[in-house]
Amino acid sequence: MTNTGKIYIVGTGPGSEEYICPKALAAMNQSDVIVGYKKYIELIEPFIKGKELVSSHMKKEVERCQEVLDLALSGKHVSLISSGDPGIYGMSGIMLEVVADKAPEIEVEVVPGVSASIAANALLGAPLMNDFAVISLSDLLTPWELIVKRLHAAGSGDFVVNLYNPRSKKRIMHLNTAVEILLQYQSPETPVGIVKNAMRENQEVTYTNLGEVLQHDIDMFTTVVIGNSFTQMINGKMITIRGYKK
After folding, report:
1. Predicted TM-score (pTM) of this structure
2. Which of 44, 78, 82, 151 has its CA 20 to 30 A from that of 112?
3. Number of helices and strands (H, E) in the chain?
4. 3-class DSSP state for residue 245?
5. Cα(53)–Cα(61) distance, rounded to whole angstroms?
């Protein structure tokens, strides 16, 4: 019987070596092949030497997972990489589904990474000090009507809201609608943090408020963190008050 390999589903965080967990580096170094979206492969290539690198374009997720499985079935250890954390809008879910459906005997290990929301939180101060929601505005895989429902739920629940994929070249107005919805529950003065390319080259951190957030340049590489009724700007940092006694 042919020995099978192992699949690591690895979160590479923002992409630079200093923000990748040691376990993620170890998993990639233990792998024969590293597979991922072209941009993510380019980010890790400088510090992953001597490995076979396989890249593909967006919207090829299922094909990518099948390729990873085929490599593991051939006896190779494979790292499937995602930026941020692989279990937060990453590759963990579909890879685990493919393995369960076609080769459940294959060993799979998920290795966490620093997500965009966590990176943005650190750069802004401490906006996620209490309950928060993470909502992607991309309706590629989730119906827009459901996203709208979730925005209302987060707003009515007074959650701090992290918006992923806030605006693309084709999807211009989704962010406007999201802001309109949240303004039904929060003051226009509510603090908002805009973080572009978090902990990467060309990083930008901007503080604004909910009434003025749409005046800023926001794209797919941006995380928008919208405060709740307890969020304040204190000493130049965005902080959600949790209730500790000073």
Report:
1. 0.93
2. 151
3. 7, 13
4. coil
5. 16
